[in-house]
Amino acid sequence: MISTLELTKAASQKEGSRYGATKGSDATEGPPADATHSERFRDNLFAFLDGPCMFKVNIANIIIIIVNGAFFFCLLVGMQTMCTPLMDCQPRNWWLNWSIQLLNVNFTFGALVALPWRLANSWHLWGLACPGRANDDGLDLYGRETEEIWFHIPKNHRRGINAIFLGNAISQFVNHAMRCVYHTYATSNEMPGQVLVNVFFILAFVLAGWGAVYLARREAALRKAQPGRWADPLGDAIKAARAWCRERCGGGDADAAEKEPLVENRSSSRDDSG
Question: Alpha carbon of 56 to those of 5, 8, 10: distances in Å?
Fold first, then answer.
C-alpha cells in the first residue's frame, strides 16, 4: 500500500506544474530530441501509471485493503460468529485463508505498479541506462535540471532508498509465490509453509516501512534546508485538516494561523521558480 500511495505524491512545485504531473522529468518539458524509443516508452508508461484511470484503480485497491484487512483481523482474533471454536473451525479458516490471499494480490499489485519507477531509477543511478544520462544531484532521468524533489536527494541516499524499495518488491513477489505454492489453510499453517508464507510477508512490510521513513526524512531535510521550494502534499493536507477542525470548533484566529503558512509556501515557491 505504501508503494501505491507513493505514486500519488507531488512531483514538483515549479510554475506550470501540478501535483503528480510527471515522473522522471520536468513537468514543463517534454522528452529531448535525442530521446530513444525505450525512453519514450518509459515516459508513456509513467504517464499511464500516474494518470486518472490508474489513480482510481489505486484508490480502489487501497479501499479493498482497508475493508478486507479489517475482515482478516476480525477472523484472526476470533471476532466471528460463523462457527466454534472461534480460532479454529470451518468456514472461519476457509475465509481467513482467502482473505490473506486477496491481501497478497493487493500488495503484489502495488509492487508491480511501482516497479517501473524502481527499475528506471536503478538504471539511472548506477549508470546502466543506454544511452547514458548524467545522474548528478538535481538532474532528471534525461540528465536535465529538474525541480522534482526526488532528484535533489543526494545520490547515495537515492541508491539506498531505491534498493530498499526494490527489496520490498522482490520480497512481495516471493511471498506471493509462496502463497500460491501453499495455497490452502492447512498447508500454510504447517511446516515448511508456515515459515515461508510469513517470513517474506513480514520482510516486505519491514522494507516498505523502512523505505518510506528513509524517503520522508530525506525529503524533510531538503524542505527544511530550502523552505518553500518544494510542495509538501502531506504537510499541506495536515495543515488543511487542522484548519478545518479548528474552524468547526470555532477557533477563528487559530484557523487563520494554520492557513497562513500554506499561502506563504505557495507564494515563495512561485517566486523561486519565476
Answer: 12, 11, 17
